[in-house]
Every structure is written in C-alpha cells, then in structure tokens.
Known about the structure:
435 residues, mainly alpha, three-stranded antiparallel beta sheet
Amino acid sequence: MIAAMRRRLLDAADRGIAAAAWLLLAVTLASLLTRDVVVATETADRVRVYVRGLEFDFVGWTLASAAVKVSQASVGAQAFVGEAARAELARQYVRLQGDLERTQAAIEQRYADPAVSDPLAATAGARLEAERLQFRLDAIQPTVEAILQEQLSVILAEQGLAWGGQPVPPVSFHLTPLPFALITSPRDVIRLEANIDVSGDLPIDEQVALEERVSADLGVSTLVVPLGGIGTYPTMVAETSNLGWIAATVAHEWLHNLLTLRPLGLSYNASPGLRTMNETTAEMIGHELGDLLLKRYYPDLAPLPRPFENILRRDVVPAQVQAPGFDFRAEMHLTRVTADRLLSEGQIDAAEDYLEVRRIFLWEHGYQIRKLNQAYFAFYGAYAVSGGGASGADPVGEAVRLLRRRSPTLADFVNTIAWFTSFDQLRDYLGLPPA
C-alpha cells in the first residue's frame, strides 16, 4: 500500500513538472495560439479603438489558469479516486451546475417580473443558495477537470492521436466564464474581417450599443457573439451542466492546439477557406471524440442532439424549442444563399431587410437569434459540420466531410488534413474539379 502510494505521488510530481513546462510555453505563446479566430487586418485595428478598456485580458487569464493547472497536476487528486467514483464526481458537478443555472434563472426572472417591487429582498434566499452551490462547485471543479482530461487522453490514445500514450500537447482545459467576440463583416459581402474578444461581463445593452457605434462609424456589419471555447493553453471551456457539450468542446479546442503545431493551424488566418477547414475539422472531430468519451465513461448519457447556431442557453437543445416539422438547417441554408445572391447583385439594403424578415421567421419557430446579418454568417458559416446551414453554398465544408468519409480512421483524417495549407491542396487530394 505504501509503495503504491509512493508511486502515485511520484507520478503526480512528474505530471506537475510536465504540466509546468507546457504551461510556461503556453504563457510565452499565449498571443500566438489559435483561438476561434484572430484576424489582424486594417479593419480589426480600426475596430479595436472602440473596445479599449473592454478587451479580455488573455495574458492575465492564462497566468492565473496556468498556476491552477500546475497545482492540479502536482497534487493529482484524481489518481486516488476509482473509475466509478470519478464518473460519479463528474456527474455530481453537472448536477450542481444545473442547480446553479436554475437558481440563477429564478433570480433573473424575479428581477424581470414587474409584479416584484423589491427583487433584492425577493431573491435573498436564492442568492444564498447560489453562493452555496458555487462554493461546492469550486471545491470539486479542479478534480473534475483533471478526470475529464485523463479520460479524453485515454480516448485520444485509443484513436491513435498520441505519442507513447500521451497526447501532444497534453489535454488541459479550464471551465470558466468566457469572453464575447465582436465580429465585423463588410456590408456588401459576407467575409469575416475582425474578431476581437471583449469582456464576458458586458451587459446586453452595452453589447448592442457597441455594435451600433462600430457599425455607424465604420459602415460595417457587426455582432457580439458568445463563445463556447477558446484554444488558449489551457483551453477555455464555458461552464455548463451539459456534460456531452463539455466533452465535445474540450476535444474541439484540443484539436485547435494540435493543429497549431501543424501547417493547417498555422495557416488559420490565411484565408476564409482555411478558417473553415480548421473549424469544421475541430467541430466534427470534437463531436466524435466527445461521443466516444461519453460512451466509454458515461454510457447512461446518450450523445445529445447538436445545438443549433446562436442558441441563447446551452442547456436547451433544438428538440425543446423547434416547431414540429421545421428544418432549421434547411431554412438557414436558404437564408444564406439568398443573402449571398442579393449582395452579389449589389442589393445591400434589400439583403439586410430580407435577413431581418428571416430572423423574425426563425424566432417564431423557436430559434432565438438576436441579430441575423452579414457578421452572423461570417462567424457561424465557418462551422460546416453538416451540409447547408449558415455555411450556405460554400464547398469547403463538404470537401472536409468527404475527406473524413474516405479516411479509414479518425487519426488518418486528422494526420492528413493537418498538413494542408490551402483549400486547393485539399481539393486536389480528393480529385475534385477546380473551382
């Protein structure tokens, strides 16, 4: 028993040294790692003037998170917990997070209820309950993160995405509130020109005001979007009670870190097509790996339906809000293709009027999209995991999906696409006709 405990402590120390080395490198390169888009353009520089004082502090976040992860790896508390107990601790985390989400929603509802004259007093008990739940979550979150990191590492090794049984870079993530991203696109064409991370504490009225200032002054389409994960190191993953979503997002962001060490990731910002290749790869393989993790360690939790774009709450899935017989992806595909056509004809005002009509139509069918414009499609159109949808008629996503279908294993797919530096290379590899 003592010898086994000594071995565990030595293993934990080794993990701590290794984690410290990777995290030191991460802090050094924090500004270079692929996030869900960093675009250095003249437009981005002009937009950045409007967000001074609002930008998210990635260096500060990375330093703080690195200290947490080094401590977590050094202690290795999960090594002293059996597999069944590990799975139960992860389930406990999502149950507590679900309780916290419902409590916070009840507080917000009281503040919005015109019949409640003193919402501060009316929510006193709920606010105490929220504090209690947050305290319990904070106590187990580091161990839960370490458990999920090790579980995904096992899946990656089984899928051939590891060297000597160890994924490179090691899986490392932190559940945390995320920033928003301010997206801009030209009005006359759907093209991402700026993606700047701003504070996740920005209230909705200030988000709208920021969008309107930038749009009016620079003549661009703007949208502030929520992010689910960011490929820093450790990666940032949004807090949620959806374990399947967490698993898929952790895998998605790890793929970004892996691709950053390969030509595809290094070429992320070189063209819209390469961005789509990166994001479609990470999203598609992230879902595959997340599903494998759930089936292996949480078989009672069936893979959840894929969330649709820009849902307001991560704990609501399309089946709960979609009208019977309504095909969101087909309707969004029609919307994107029609908007592209109108813009190509120079009918900018007509395209924007059309998008607002379609936004109202989608809202009436259960899809709570706050703003549907060129910036919306510039951001969400890169996630071309399945045909149609916000990507419209873009052929890049279909080519990535074709390569996956032709690849005998997940690792073969990743190790092939990771070395492309242009969409033309992918198309030539597949034997597709030139554009």
